[in-house]
Design brief:
The chain is an alpha/beta fold. It has eleven helices and 14 strands. Bound molecules: adenosine-5'-triphosphate (ATP). The site of adenosine-5'-triphosphate has 13 residues, from strand 2 and helix 1. Pfam families: ABC_tran (PF00005), NIL (PF09383).
Protein backbone atom coordinates (compact mmCIF):
# COMPACT_ATOMS: atom_id res chain seq x y z
CA UNK A 1 0.00 0.00 0.00
CA UNK A 2 2.90 2.31 0.84
CA UNK A 3 6.06 1.73 -1.14
CA UNK A 4 8.85 4.25 -0.66
CA UNK A 5 12.24 3.59 -2.17
CA UNK A 6 15.60 5.30 -1.67
CA UNK A 7 14.36 8.34 0.25
CA UNK A 8 16.93 11.06 0.86
CA UNK A 9 16.30 14.43 2.46
CA UNK A 10 18.84 17.04 3.48
CA UNK A 11 17.86 20.28 5.21
CA UNK A 12 20.18 23.10 4.27
CA UNK A 13 20.56 25.54 7.11
CA UNK A 14 22.70 28.67 7.10
CA UNK A 15 25.84 27.07 8.40
CA UNK A 16 25.25 23.36 8.11
CA UNK A 17 23.40 20.60 6.40
CA UNK A 18 21.23 18.11 8.28
CA UNK A 19 20.63 14.74 6.68
CA UNK A 20 17.15 13.77 7.89
CA UNK A 21 16.64 10.79 5.54
CA UNK A 22 19.59 8.83 4.28
CA UNK A 23 18.37 6.11 1.93
CA UNK A 24 15.16 4.87 3.56
CA UNK A 25 13.13 2.08 1.94
CA UNK A 26 9.68 1.56 3.45
CA UNK A 27 7.07 -0.97 2.42
CA UNK A 28 3.76 -1.14 4.26
CA UNK A 29 1.33 -3.87 3.22
CA UNK A 30 -2.43 -3.16 2.90
CA UNK A 31 -4.21 -3.41 6.26
CA UNK A 32 -0.97 -3.43 8.20
CA UNK A 33 -0.08 -1.31 11.24
CA UNK A 34 3.54 -0.28 10.77
CA UNK A 35 5.46 1.59 13.47
CA UNK A 36 8.64 3.58 13.05
CA UNK A 37 10.38 4.05 16.38
CA UNK A 38 13.40 6.17 17.14
CA UNK A 39 14.77 8.91 19.30
CA UNK A 40 14.25 12.61 18.78
CA UNK A 41 15.99 13.79 15.62
CA UNK A 42 16.11 10.31 14.04
CA UNK A 43 14.09 11.53 11.06
CA UNK A 44 10.68 10.02 11.86
CA UNK A 45 8.60 13.15 11.28
CA UNK A 46 10.45 13.89 8.07
CA UNK A 47 9.71 10.36 6.87
CA UNK A 48 6.02 10.67 7.72
CA UNK A 49 5.72 14.03 6.00
CA UNK A 50 7.53 12.62 2.98
CA UNK A 51 4.99 9.81 2.62
CA UNK A 52 2.21 12.31 1.90
CA UNK A 53 4.59 14.71 0.16
CA UNK A 54 4.17 17.50 2.71
CA UNK A 55 7.94 17.26 2.39
CA UNK A 56 9.38 16.53 -1.03
CA UNK A 57 12.35 14.13 -0.87
CA UNK A 58 15.61 15.15 -2.58
CA UNK A 59 15.75 11.66 -4.04
CA UNK A 60 13.59 8.55 -4.03
CA UNK A 61 10.01 7.70 -4.90
CA UNK A 62 6.84 7.36 -2.86
CA UNK A 63 3.93 5.24 -4.06
CA UNK A 64 0.67 5.00 -2.16
CA UNK A 65 -1.94 2.54 -3.43
CA UNK A 66 0.08 2.15 -6.63
CA UNK A 67 0.11 5.86 -7.44
CA UNK A 68 3.47 7.58 -7.54
CA UNK A 69 3.00 10.69 -5.41
CA UNK A 70 6.51 11.95 -6.14
CA UNK A 71 5.50 12.47 -9.78
CA UNK A 72 2.46 14.61 -8.86
CA UNK A 73 2.13 18.32 -8.12
CA UNK A 74 -0.66 20.84 -7.54
CA UNK A 75 -4.25 19.64 -7.89
CA UNK A 76 -3.21 16.06 -8.73
CA UNK A 77 -1.23 15.82 -5.52
CA UNK A 78 -4.04 17.39 -3.47
CA UNK A 79 -6.50 14.81 -4.80
CA UNK A 80 -4.12 11.94 -4.11
CA UNK A 81 -3.57 13.22 -0.56
CA UNK A 82 -7.27 12.79 0.23
CA UNK A 83 -6.59 9.07 0.32
CA UNK A 84 -4.16 9.68 3.19
CA UNK A 85 -5.41 10.89 6.58
CA UNK A 86 -3.12 12.32 9.22
CA UNK A 87 -3.34 12.41 13.01
CA UNK A 88 -1.17 14.81 15.02
CA UNK A 89 0.41 14.65 18.44
CA UNK A 90 -1.14 17.92 19.59
CA UNK A 91 -4.45 17.29 17.81
CA UNK A 92 -4.35 20.47 15.68
CA UNK A 93 -8.04 21.24 16.22
CA UNK A 94 -9.64 24.59 15.44
CA UNK A 95 -10.54 26.09 18.84
CA UNK A 96 -13.34 28.27 17.46
CA UNK A 97 -15.18 25.35 15.87
CA UNK A 98 -17.28 22.70 17.55
CA UNK A 99 -16.31 19.03 17.43
CA UNK A 100 -18.70 18.54 14.49
CA UNK A 101 -17.28 21.66 12.82
CA UNK A 102 -13.73 20.32 13.10
CA UNK A 103 -14.68 16.97 11.61
CA UNK A 104 -16.66 18.70 8.85
CA UNK A 105 -13.77 20.99 7.94
CA UNK A 106 -11.99 18.75 5.39
CA UNK A 107 -15.36 17.92 3.84
CA UNK A 108 -16.11 21.63 3.38
CA UNK A 109 -12.71 22.12 1.77
CA UNK A 110 -13.43 19.21 -0.56
CA UNK A 111 -16.76 20.80 -1.55
CA UNK A 112 -19.05 18.14 -0.04
CA UNK A 113 -22.66 19.42 0.23
CA UNK A 114 -24.29 20.25 3.56
CA UNK A 115 -26.64 17.25 3.84
CA UNK A 116 -23.97 14.73 2.96
CA UNK A 117 -21.53 16.47 5.28
CA UNK A 118 -23.89 16.23 8.24
CA UNK A 119 -24.53 12.56 7.66
CA UNK A 120 -20.83 11.83 7.30
CA UNK A 121 -19.89 13.79 10.44
CA UNK A 122 -22.55 11.84 12.38
CA UNK A 123 -21.12 8.53 11.14
CA UNK A 124 -17.56 9.57 11.99
CA UNK A 125 -18.40 10.72 15.51
CA UNK A 126 -20.23 7.42 16.08
CA UNK A 127 -17.19 5.55 14.84
CA UNK A 128 -14.88 7.18 17.39
CA UNK A 129 -17.43 7.12 20.24
CA UNK A 130 -18.10 10.87 20.44
CA UNK A 131 -21.65 11.16 19.13
CA UNK A 132 -22.69 13.04 22.30
CA UNK A 133 -19.94 15.68 21.93
CA UNK A 134 -20.83 17.05 18.50
CA UNK A 135 -21.65 20.53 19.86
CA UNK A 136 -18.80 20.74 22.37
CA UNK A 137 -15.72 22.87 21.71
CA UNK A 138 -12.21 21.39 21.86
CA UNK A 139 -11.45 23.25 25.13
CA UNK A 140 -14.22 21.24 26.82
CA UNK A 141 -12.68 17.89 25.89
CA UNK A 142 -10.05 15.66 27.51
CA UNK A 143 -6.84 14.86 25.60
CA UNK A 144 -8.17 11.46 24.59
CA UNK A 145 -11.41 12.98 23.32
CA UNK A 146 -9.48 15.59 21.35
CA UNK A 147 -7.48 12.85 19.71
CA UNK A 148 -10.69 11.01 18.81
CA UNK A 149 -11.85 14.19 17.07
CA UNK A 150 -8.47 14.32 15.29
CA UNK A 151 -8.94 10.74 14.15
CA UNK A 152 -12.53 11.32 12.99
CA UNK A 153 -11.36 14.36 11.00
CA UNK A 154 -8.52 12.35 9.46
CA UNK A 155 -11.04 9.73 8.30
CA UNK A 156 -13.52 12.23 6.83
CA UNK A 157 -12.41 11.77 3.23
CA UNK A 158 -12.48 7.94 3.56
CA UNK A 159 -8.72 7.51 3.24
CA UNK A 160 -7.10 4.10 2.74
CA UNK A 161 -4.04 5.15 4.70
CA UNK A 162 -3.74 6.83 8.08
CA UNK A 163 -0.50 8.49 9.14
CA UNK A 164 -0.09 8.97 12.86
CA UNK A 165 2.47 11.46 14.15
CA UNK A 166 3.04 10.50 17.81
CA UNK A 167 -0.75 10.34 18.30
CA UNK A 168 -0.50 9.12 21.89
CA UNK A 169 2.61 10.94 23.11
CA UNK A 170 0.66 13.69 24.83
CA UNK A 171 -1.70 11.25 26.55
CA UNK A 172 -1.65 9.38 29.88
CA UNK A 173 -1.22 5.57 29.85
CA UNK A 174 -4.92 4.65 30.16
CA UNK A 175 -5.92 7.11 27.42
CA UNK A 176 -3.04 5.89 25.27
CA UNK A 177 -4.45 2.37 25.59
CA UNK A 178 -7.90 3.47 24.48
CA UNK A 179 -6.56 5.39 21.46
CA UNK A 180 -4.37 2.45 20.40
CA UNK A 181 -7.38 0.14 20.75
CA UNK A 182 -9.38 2.56 18.58
CA UNK A 183 -6.68 2.59 15.89
CA UNK A 184 -6.62 -1.20 15.84
CA UNK A 185 -10.42 -1.38 15.62
CA UNK A 186 -10.39 1.11 12.71
CA UNK A 187 -7.81 -1.02 10.94
CA UNK A 188 -9.95 -4.12 11.48
CA UNK A 189 -13.30 -2.54 10.57
CA UNK A 190 -12.26 -0.21 7.75
CA UNK A 191 -9.25 -2.15 6.44
CA UNK A 192 -7.10 0.95 6.97
CA UNK A 193 -3.36 0.82 6.50
CA UNK A 194 -1.68 2.67 9.35
CA UNK A 195 1.83 4.10 9.44
CA UNK A 196 2.72 5.56 12.81
CA UNK A 197 5.79 7.16 14.27
CA UNK A 198 6.55 6.98 17.96
CA UNK A 199 9.36 7.15 20.46
CA UNK A 200 7.54 4.65 22.69
CA UNK A 201 8.45 0.96 22.38
CA UNK A 202 5.18 0.19 24.10
CA UNK A 203 3.24 1.41 21.07
CA UNK A 204 5.19 -0.98 18.85
CA UNK A 205 4.49 -3.82 21.26
CA UNK A 206 0.81 -3.10 21.57
CA UNK A 207 -0.44 -2.60 18.05
CA UNK A 208 2.20 -2.90 15.35
CA UNK A 209 2.43 -5.81 12.93
CA UNK A 210 5.67 -4.48 11.48
CA UNK A 211 8.22 -1.99 12.69
CA UNK A 212 11.40 -0.18 11.85
CA UNK A 213 14.02 1.18 14.22
CA UNK A 214 15.25 4.49 12.89
CA UNK A 215 18.52 6.22 13.75
CA UNK A 216 20.24 9.16 12.09
CA UNK A 217 18.01 9.09 9.02
CA UNK A 218 18.34 5.34 8.41
CA UNK A 219 16.43 2.17 9.24
CA UNK A 220 18.68 0.09 11.48
CA UNK A 221 16.29 -2.85 11.14
CA UNK A 222 12.79 -3.37 9.81
CA UNK A 223 10.28 -6.13 9.22
CA UNK A 224 7.44 -8.05 10.85
CA UNK A 225 7.68 -7.54 14.62
CA UNK A 226 7.60 -11.26 15.43
CA UNK A 227 10.21 -12.03 12.76
CA UNK A 228 12.50 -9.32 14.12
CA UNK A 229 12.14 -10.64 17.66
CA UNK A 230 13.21 -14.07 16.40
CA UNK A 231 16.29 -12.71 14.58
CA UNK A 232 19.70 -13.06 16.25
CA UNK A 233 21.03 -9.75 17.58
CA UNK A 234 17.73 -7.92 17.00
CA UNK A 235 17.73 -4.37 18.38
CA UNK A 236 13.95 -4.49 18.59
CA UNK A 237 14.04 -7.63 20.75
CA UNK A 238 16.58 -5.97 23.03
CA UNK A 239 14.55 -2.79 23.32
CA UNK A 240 11.25 -4.58 23.90
CA UNK A 241 12.75 -6.93 26.48
CA UNK A 242 15.61 -5.24 28.28
CA UNK A 243 17.55 -7.86 30.25
CA UNK A 244 19.88 -7.43 33.21
CA UNK A 245 23.54 -7.33 32.24
CA UNK A 246 24.51 -10.46 34.17
CA UNK A 247 25.79 -13.92 33.73
CA UNK A 248 28.91 -15.86 32.94
CA UNK A 249 30.10 -18.46 30.46
CA UNK A 250 27.03 -20.67 30.96
CA UNK A 251 24.54 -17.87 30.40
CA UNK A 252 22.27 -17.76 27.37
CA UNK A 253 19.48 -15.49 26.20
CA UNK A 254 16.44 -17.48 25.12
CA UNK A 255 13.82 -15.75 23.00
CA UNK A 256 10.34 -17.16 22.44
CA UNK A 257 9.16 -15.45 19.25
CA UNK A 258 5.62 -16.88 19.59
CA UNK A 259 3.26 -18.46 22.15
CA UNK A 260 4.28 -21.91 23.41
CA UNK A 261 1.96 -24.24 25.30
CA UNK A 262 4.69 -26.70 26.30
CA UNK A 263 6.59 -26.06 29.53
CA UNK A 264 9.94 -26.06 27.75
CA UNK A 265 12.20 -25.16 30.66
CA UNK A 266 10.98 -27.95 32.95
CA UNK A 267 11.12 -30.33 29.99
CA UNK A 268 14.74 -29.34 29.59
CA UNK A 269 15.58 -30.20 33.21
CA UNK A 270 13.84 -33.57 32.92
CA UNK A 271 15.24 -34.64 29.57
CA UNK A 272 18.79 -33.39 29.80
CA UNK A 273 19.39 -33.24 33.51
CA UNK A 274 20.59 -29.64 33.34
CA UNK A 275 20.25 -26.93 35.99
CA UNK A 276 18.24 -23.97 34.77
CA UNK A 277 18.52 -20.71 36.69
CA UNK A 278 16.50 -17.80 35.32
CA UNK A 279 18.35 -14.52 35.94
CA UNK A 280 15.76 -12.19 34.43
CA UNK A 281 13.39 -11.56 31.58
CA UNK A 282 9.72 -11.35 30.84
CA UNK A 283 6.80 -12.47 28.75
CA UNK A 284 4.56 -9.97 26.99
CA UNK A 285 1.75 -9.90 24.47
CA UNK A 286 3.25 -8.78 21.16
CA UNK A 287 1.29 -8.81 17.90
CA UNK A 288 -1.24 -11.17 19.51
CA UNK A 289 1.36 -13.71 20.69
CA UNK A 290 2.87 -14.34 24.11
CA UNK A 291 6.46 -13.52 23.37
CA UNK A 292 9.22 -13.85 25.91
CA UNK A 293 12.88 -13.32 26.43
CA UNK A 294 14.83 -14.81 29.30
CA UNK A 295 18.42 -14.68 30.43
CA UNK A 296 19.23 -18.09 31.84
CA UNK A 297 22.19 -19.92 33.37
CA UNK A 298 22.18 -23.40 31.96
CA UNK A 299 24.63 -25.90 33.42
CA UNK A 300 25.22 -29.61 33.08
CA UNK A 301 27.03 -32.22 31.03
CA UNK A 302 24.28 -32.19 28.38
CA UNK A 303 24.07 -28.40 28.00
CA UNK A 304 24.78 -28.59 24.24
CA UNK A 305 21.93 -31.02 23.41
CA UNK A 306 19.63 -29.05 25.72
CA UNK A 307 20.29 -25.84 23.77
CA UNK A 308 19.77 -27.70 20.48
CA UNK A 309 16.44 -28.97 21.80
CA UNK A 310 15.30 -25.39 22.41
CA UNK A 311 16.42 -24.32 18.94
CA UNK A 312 14.57 -27.31 17.39
CA UNK A 313 11.41 -26.03 19.08
CA UNK A 314 11.74 -22.67 17.36
CA UNK A 315 13.29 -20.75 20.22
CA UNK A 316 16.19 -18.45 19.55
CA UNK A 317 19.21 -19.21 21.73
CA UNK A 318 22.08 -16.73 21.90
CA UNK A 319 25.15 -16.82 24.13
CA UNK A 320 24.71 -13.88 26.52
CA UNK A 321 28.18 -12.49 25.92
CA UNK A 322 27.53 -11.90 22.21
N1 LIG B 1 12.28 22.06 8.50
C1 LIG B 1 13.50 21.71 8.94
N2 LIG B 1 14.57 22.50 8.73
C2 LIG B 1 15.79 22.14 9.17
N3 LIG B 1 16.06 21.00 9.82
C3 LIG B 1 15.04 20.16 10.07
C4 LIG B 1 13.70 20.47 9.65
N4 LIG B 1 12.90 19.45 10.04
C5 LIG B 1 13.67 18.55 10.66
N5 LIG B 1 14.97 18.98 10.69
C6 LIG B 1 16.12 18.24 11.24
O1 LIG B 1 16.15 16.95 10.64
C7 LIG B 1 16.48 15.94 11.59
C8 LIG B 1 15.35 14.94 11.67
O2 LIG B 1 14.23 15.58 12.25
P1 LIG B 1 12.80 14.89 12.44
O3 LIG B 1 11.87 15.91 13.03
O4 LIG B 1 12.40 14.23 11.18
O5 LIG B 1 13.15 13.76 13.53
P2 LIG B 1 12.19 13.00 14.52
O6 LIG B 1 12.76 11.62 14.65
O7 LIG B 1 10.79 13.12 14.07
O8 LIG B 1 12.41 13.78 15.86
P3 LIG B 1 11.28 14.38 16.85
O9 LIG B 1 10.67 13.19 17.51
O10 LIG B 1 12.09 15.22 17.79
O11 LIG B 1 10.35 15.18 15.98
C9 LIG B 1 16.74 16.67 12.91
O12 LIG B 1 18.12 16.89 13.03
C10 LIG B 1 15.99 17.98 12.73
O13 LIG B 1 16.59 19.01 13.50
Amino acid sequence: MIDAVGLHKVYRLKKRRVTALNGVDLRVEPGEIYGVVGQSGAGKSTLLRTVNLLERPDAGTVRVGGEELTSLRGAGLRTARRRIGMVHQHFALLASRTVAGNVAFPLEVAGVGRTERRARVGELLDLVGLADKARAHPSQLSGGQKQRVGIARALASRPDVLLSDEATSALDPATTDSILALLRRLRDELGLTILLITHEMDVIKRICDSAAIMEAGEFRESGRVLDLIGTPGSLLARSLFPLPDRGGPDTVVVTYPRSYDEPLMSELTRRFDVDVNILGGGVEQVAGQSVGRLIVDLRGARRGPALSYLAEHGLLVEEAGQ
